[in-house]
Amino acid sequence: MGFLYKKLSEKDKEEIKKEAKRIMDSFGKKLSKIKELPKEGSIKRENSIREEGPGKDGSPDFKKRILENAPNKNKDFIIAEKKGWE
Length: 86
Description:
Elements: H1 10-32, H2 62-69, E1 73-74, E2 77-78
Antiparallel strand pairs: 1-2
């Protein structure tokens, strides 16, 4: 299956740049409202290797809740757009 490709006009490119800038500016404003950001390397461990152990039982209704929240589904599957990143 091939990838879909749409050639963008200069106008489309400019609109995308403006929208991306708006999103980044909005995100930056929200970040500036956070009083204290976590310090880098604030997680302290005795060693850096995590040992595997027995798993925990999950919530029995997890799948049901996820499927109820999915906008597009088909029986037991979530239908999502496949996207390629360049």
